[in-house]
Amino acid sequence: MEAGGQPAAPHVSVILPVHNAEAWLDECLRSVLQQDFEGSMELSVFNDASKDKSMTIIEKWKVKLEDSGILVVIGGHDSPSPRGVGYSKNQAIAQSSGSYLCFLDSDDAMMPQRVRLQHEAAVRHPTSIIGCQVRREPPNSTERYTRWINQLASDQLLTQVFTSHGPTVVMPTWFCSREWFSHVGPFDEGGQGVPEDLLFFYSHLRKGGGVVRVDQSLLIYRYHPKAATHSVLETTIWTHRVRFLEERALPHWAAFTIWNAGRQGRRLYRSLTAESRRKVVAFCDVDENKIKKGFYSYEDSEERPKPRVPILHFRAARPPFVICVKLLPPRRLCQFTLHQPPSVDAAIKPTVSTDRR
């Protein structure tokens, strides 16, 4: 208790937005109850217009959780339509009081040691987002993406920040201090189709935040057709990613080469601003048919004369490069990597792909 008889603020608030989650809530809330963290915890739930039995399940678990010493705060609304994940997270944070925030999606479940281990890491790294490795359910649903989540080296958590997979530590694994969240946030509340996690992550990086991953599997990360991530269009992710690339990487270069004269390389070129396009000195490729064309003409350009960008054999091209690589089906990934001379800051050497999941 604090002076005056008021209860002390909990160490950790688990932030749980809920929308029509009855199929998963029992497992999710049981995982909160089973945490082995010895500090004080609260669960902050915000119900975003659920029309199923989610609230009945939450009220049932409220009794069990509070009997075990975990305070439960419940908010929400019953409007005809949900307000979205960003809004729900912001509301759950606003009604909570913990010094640290542990984000949890209602279709996922935590391992018992999650809060303890991520809290320890957050204390050591107060301006970082702390993530963790995951166990995907069903196990074979997104094998390449899951490997990417779990196997990035510590330096790649920053060097791969442009990937279309999204943040290099996935949102349901996030843990950070309330103070740092308040410095960076809140989440974008644009609703369905807005990648609020990616936008927050970019803001976090702009403000000098770090990225740390606890290298243990601390979350069951569920894949299913109703997941909110499916509402975000690939074109939306692409646009945000290219703008961030132009903001953070391309200003370091007076000129660069796009490695791939095919569809994805041309798409990147067309997506750039006119200022960035003027820095593209060439495309390069290994395909003789593309090289024989001699140049790429951007017919939709408003510039006169229209840009004509040379297409070179890769041996004739000079760095820095943006390397576009199409991976094999079934994931149909197309990724591009920045490569520049060693003198350029290593923090702008990412990998980017057009498939987020």
Question: What would your notes on this structure say?
Answer:
α1 (25-33) packs parallel to α2. It is built from 12 helices and 15 strands. The chain is elongated and about 75 Å long. With 357 residues, it is of the alpha/beta class.
Précis, in short:
The chain is an alpha/beta fold and 357 residues long. The protein is built from twelve helices and 15 strands. Strands 11-12-10-9-13-14-15 form a seven-stranded mixed β-sheet. A five-stranded mixed β-sheet has the order 3-2-1-4-7, with helices on both faces.
Descriptors:
357 residues; alpha/beta; seven-stranded mixed sheet; five-stranded mixed sheet; 15 strands; 30% helix; disordered C terminus; Glyco_trans_2-like; hexosyltransferase activity; UDP-GlcNAc:betaGal beta-1,3-N-acetylglucosaminyltransferase like 1
The proportion of strand residues reads: 15-25%
Spatial shape: elongated
| Order of the strands making up the biggest sheet | 11-12-10-9-13-14-15
Give a quick account of the main beta sheet: strands, pairing sense, barrel closure.
7 strands, mixed
> How many DSSP helices?
12
- Could you state the oligomeric state of the chains shown? single chain
Which stretches are poorly predicted, pLDDT < 50 over at least 5 residues?
328-334, 342-357
Radius of gyration: 23 Å
Structural class: alpha/beta
E-strand count: 15
Rounded mean pLDDT score: 88
User: N-to-C SSE series?
Assistant: EHEHEHEEHEHHEHHEHEHHEHEEEEE
Roughly how many Å apart are the termini?
45 Å
The helix content, as a percent range, equals 25-40%
